[in-house]
Structures are given as C-alpha cells and as structure tokens.
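Researcher: Last one for today. Full complex below.
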Amino acid sequence: MSLLEEMNQKATAQGIPLSAHLDITWRCNERCVHCYLDHHGKDEMSTAEIKDVIRQLEECGTFFLSISGGEPLLRRDCFEILEYARKLRFNVKLKTNAVMIAAKEAARLKQLGIEQVQISIYSDRPEIHDAITKLPGSLRRSLEAIRHLKAEGVKVSITNVLMKHNAASGKAVQQLAKEIGVEFFIDPTITPMLNGDRSILSLGISKKELDEVFRTEEFVGNVGEFCAPASTVDDNVLDGYSCSAGHTLAYISPSGDVFPCVQFPMPCGNLREKTFREIWWRSEALTELRSIRVRDLPTCSQCGHAGYCTRCPGLAYMEGNMRGPSSADCAKSEARTGVPSAWQLRSGHLSSNLVQIRLA
Amino acid sequence: MPTTETYLAKSTDIAARKLGDETIIMSTLDSTIFMLNPTGTAIWEAADGNATLSRIIEEKLCAEFDVPLEQASADARHFVDELAEHGILVVSDHPIPQ
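Model: Here's the assembly. Have a good evening.
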C-alpha cells in the first residue's frame, strides 16, 4: 500500500476531510460552452471569510486543498489566499485557465510552493480551443503561461475535456503536453450544471467516440486489460462506497455552501451559519451519504460492473437519486466492456444486444 | 549526522498535517512524502527553531515515550539526518528564526 493510500485509509477511518475543493469565485474570463457554473459573483465570501474557512479546514485535518473557480485569479486577493493556505502548510493545487499568469505570477506561485497548477486545454488548434472558451487568444495565452510555469519549475497538468467540438483532439493535446513536459489527463465526461440544467449534456461525445477513446492505448494503457476488467462482485465491493465525496472530500462554494463534491450539489450547510466542523460532523445529508454502501444501491449492487464502475454518486444525485445509477458511468462501463449495465438493461437504454450473466 | 546540540526548525518548503498521532509531510520541492510515527511527530512538533535536539530528546522522547536516552539519541539523530537530507527539517548550530 502506498503512503497516500495509507493516509486515505486512516483519514476515512477517522472521518477526516483530507481533501477540500474551494471555489473562491464563480466569475470567469472565459465562457466555456460546457461549463457547469453560472458566472455570477453574488454573495462571494470576503478575504477574511475565506481565510477563516481555510483555518477551519486546517483544524479539521485537511491536507490537500484545491483552490479553483470560476477563474480564481480574477480575485485580487487570490495570491493572499494562496499565501495564507501555504502558511498553514496545506498541499495546494491551483485550478486555473492560466490566461492571467505571466512571468511574475509564475515566479510567485513557485515561491509559494504551490504543488501543481491544473489547466484545461481543449485542442492544440486555436480555432477549436478558443471556440470552446469563447475567449479569442486563450489557447496562446494559456500555453504561454504553461511555459512560464515550467521555466520556474512549477508542476503543471493539462486536462483535455472531450466534447463534440474537440472529440478528436486527445492525441494532439497529449503530444503537446509531452513536448512541453507536463502531465496529461483526458476526461470524456460533460456534467450537468450545478443549477440542474442538463442541456449542456448534448455537447458530450458520441458512444462511438467514447468507444474509440477507451480503445486508445495512449489514453488507457493496456486496452485488453482496460476493456476486460476483473468482474468479481464480492463482499469487499459490496461493503465499499462509490468515491471519497463526503467521506474524505468536501467542496466549498464561493458563498460558503458545503457540498460533498463539486459534482454533488447536495446542500450540507453554509459556513456563514455554521462552522465547518459542525457541518462535516453533524450534517444529516453527509451522515446519510456516509451510511450508503454499494450493497445499498438497488440497481448498481445487482450489476456485474460494480467492481470497477466509476459510478459518481453526485451525478446520480443530479439524476434524482444518490442511490441510483449515474447514466454517464453506465455508458462508460458499457463502452469499456461492450456489456450494458443492469440499469441500461432494465430501462431499455441499450446500444448493444448483449446481456449480463450473473453467477449465483 | 546532526549532534544533540543541533537546533531544528521546520522547512517552509513543505506541506504537513497531523492525522491523529501521526503526521503526513510532503516536500513541495520534489513531492517526496513522509508519514511520521508518534515519536517522529513529537520531534517535528518541537522543531521550532529554538529547541536543540538534546532538549527534544530529553523532554519529548524520553519523558513521553519512555525510551532510554541512548536509544532515543541514536534514533532521533538518524531521523533528523534523513529529514534534513530531503529539506524537510532545517538544522543549524544556532537558533533558527521562524
């Protein structure tokens, strides 16, 4: 077991919110077509309020802190907030589109000891990337920022979110990341807006395109192993839970709302009304979420994909039931293996005519 | 190898958090991760730039963990040496301003 796994296990056992995702603003200088946020700046916490939240997270044992948005650098106090978090010895990651990072900002991020800067790059072609961000020149500016960060020795990762506009961009962006010398991640999932609007889901890539992503060695490693994962659904699987959301991970919105995860907008409390400790330990919503094991999921516990499914309870929640399936993850399991999920079979959402055979 | 009269301070190039009676530390320079056990955590917490290793051994390790002085000194010097090598602890012959 790696030290990180050991740490996660201990945090889970002790109920420690080891990781927190803090959006300091939802305002943004880009208008990405697939974004799940409204870009209003209403009710944003003040600098003092955000510092107090960070101090509370430190008291509760949070170690990994992602500062994000919106575009976090639109706040004039962004560096002050980062500095405060580093002073309290957090491992800090910054999620940004980076268009406001020039040489001076890159040097400051290095000096602060930011663990990683995470940037979305949608294509190696400006006409595609900029059409998604709706900010002319954004690809050029983001790439310039990455070069400044690299020159300072700051770790950078690129995430390539796939949608209709850039479905074929993965390999080129991966090559670009390799040339610049930064980490690369590919994400084929478009998620609904936090306000429940699901219209942006229509921007997602097709089943055929998802099949292709999952059969590309550069993205998934050994295709044979990825597409034919071990399928045992035993007590270890059934006694487990879907992900760390609400167990060791918390999300905090710019106005102080606490959710289990940024993709799981289940209200747990607001930090202007209660302390983080009170919300984390006493919220009925979090208590209920933590009680759910895979065996408590009516459909998913009966599904042969349960052992390796990437089921997102937040997406399930946004579909109406956090104990239900996340149809996007059913589609991924089907794309990986060619076999429909239990939910797809029951609901008729089928794109193949295979069935699951469950051994007693 | 540090002597027992070495002053210890926490580096600023780290992220750290106490989990129960253990401490997770990650270097921001090379992302090396350490998990300190309770005795390592006691040394880490006492490393305020003003305490010498001998004082930490005497007041923390021997007193709180019931470890013989000789064994505590050898283990602590080895521990400090390793953490200093990775830039996690700062060591000096003089007090270290924090």
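The interface with chain B takes residues 3-4, 6-7, 10-11, 14, 16, 18, 58, 61-63, 86, 89-92, 113-115, 155 of chain A (CB under 8 Å). The beta strands of chain A are 19-23, 64-68, 91-95, 116-120, 156-161, 183-187, 249-252, 257-259, 269-270.
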